[in-house]
Amino acid sequence: MAPTKEQTRDGSEGHRMSNDTQQALFGYALRLGDTSLVLGHRLSEWCGHAPELEEDIALTNVALDLVGHARLWLAYAGEVEGKGRDEDRLAYRRDVFDYRNHLLVEQPNRDFGHTIVRQFLHDSWAVELYDRLTASTDATLAGIAAKAVKEVRYHVRHSADWLIRLGDGTAVSHAKVQDALDRLWPYTGEMFESDAASATLAAAGIAPDPVELRAAWNARIADVLAEATLSRPADGWMQKGGLRGEHSEHLGFLLAEMQFLPRAYPDATW
Amino acid sequence: MPDAGCWGPEPGADALLLTAWNALAEVMDPEIPVLSVVDLGVVRSVAREMDGRVAVTVTPTYSGCPATGVIVLDVETALARAGLDAVVRVVIAPPWTTDWISETGRAKLAEVGIVPPPASGKRSLTAPEESIACPLCGSTDTAQISRFGSTACKALHRCNACLEPFDVFKCH
Fold first, then answer.
1. Do A57 and B63 touch (CB under 8 A)?
2. Residue A269 domain-assigned?
3. Residue B3 is assigned to a structural domain of this protein
4. Do B34 and B87 lie in a common domain?
5. pTM of the predicted model, to two decimals?
6. Cβ–Cβ gap A9/B147 under 8 Å
7. What's the start-to-end Cα distance of chain A, in Å?
8. Is B52 exposed, middle or buried, given 0-12, 13-18 or 19+ CB atoms closer than 10 A?
9. What domain range is A157 assigned to?
10. Residue A237 lies in a domain
11. How many structural domains are present in chain A?
12. Domain at B48, CATH number
């Protein structure tokens, strides 16, 4: 990441809030930043490997947007925390247990269909969340969400298009995306998980209760799966823990690659 | 900050502000070098600080656009070359939109064969894309090859009449 310039955002008036709210807001910005960063990194692994040139460019374009969102969320997290950690420090100097991303986004790419299913499940959540966050009482959250939602709307069109094409495609493409959907479904429950921090933020009008996103998410999933001739898996056991730092084995390998340079050369600038 | 385009000095701007605007008009977008940063609509304001310095506010096009850092550096360099002691700030709100590309900017895009963006407006997520005329032969028998093109802000299309591929500035 490039060094950042002096950043100011309209309407920011400093942070006069209770310790609880400040702590919750820090954690929330980390969750959004880590989720964007880990998914952005996963997509960047396709660079040079996608099934066709156009998709190679598409996936890396989406990756670029997500890493951009991560920079904004993490820079704000560092600002709220007030301990002098900037976006790079948060991205590169935390280990697995300090990451707060959804388990869904750290799941490996496997094949193109699997990547598209993961993306569609995430995009459908992100578009609903960011849309609501534009009305946050926190001007910075609202500003970042207003910027990001325009890009995420474009992402969800792309991932939904591909899911329909693959689901309603050949027997092989259909089977692959149905398998990916079954495999990834247990990771979707976490996106709607509430806890004490999300309750604090919801009460202050800073962020919606995650549960509120569920109905709109369900509706979009139902529409697209129907068009893609795919079956919605049953809501059974849901994997949880990412928001508390309990991750699958995949995240460590991802961070090892992503953090190699700043770990090996701690104060390098470029 | 107003939610509208900003392409030049307001009436009554003093000599320093005019110098700044003239310098900015010479700073080209690194990825679409026919467009100045002013035509692209990423310059949001040019004003005087309390201490008399010129303050230029810029906004990124896309959140992750790698050109943003280069643009800020180029703007700082251009202002320094014009002899100004200026401060450059980056804001993200209100978010940049292709509606802020100036009329001159749109004409310059068309000249180099990039279809300017259609006007934005609320559109359903699943609505079909509108038909786009080929910048080379004018035919409207065109198809989108990819939603994502050579830069974050462009999509790739192809003309079914003359068979040439072409870039379209995405509506954003």
1. no
2. no
3. no
4. yes
5. 0.91
6. no
7. 8
8. exposed
9. 19-232+242-264
10. no
11. 1
12. 3.30.300.130
User: In this structure, are residues A241 and A231 in contact, taking their beta carbons and an 8 Å threshold?
Assistant: no
Complex ipTM, two decimals?
Answer: 0.87
- 8 Å CB contact of B90 and A5: yes
The verdict on residue B108 lying in a domain is: no
| Interchain contact A269–B (C-beta under 8 A) | no
For β-strands B154-159 and B86-90, DSSP reports them as: unpaired
The letter for the amino acid at A234 is A
Given an 8 Å threshold on Cβ–Cβ distance, is A62 in contact with B91?
no
Looking at the complex, report in whole angstroms how far the Cα of residue A15 sits from the nearest Cα belonging to chain B.
18
Using an 8 Å CB-CB cutoff, list chain B residues near A54. Answer: 145-146, 148, 156
Are B20 and B87 in a shared domain?
yes
Whether B67 is covered by a domain: the verdict is yes
Q: What is the pLDDT along chain A (270 residues), one digit of tens a residue?
A: 333 334 444 334 445 688 999 999 999 999 999 999 999 999 999 999 999 999 999 999 999 999 999 999 999 999 999 999 999 999 999 999 999 999 999 999 999 999 999 999 999 999 999 999 999 999 999 999 999 999 999 999 999 999 999 999 999 999 999 999 999 999 999 999 999 999 999 999 999 999 999 999 999 999 999 999 999 999 999 999 999 999 999 999 999 999 999 999 988 887
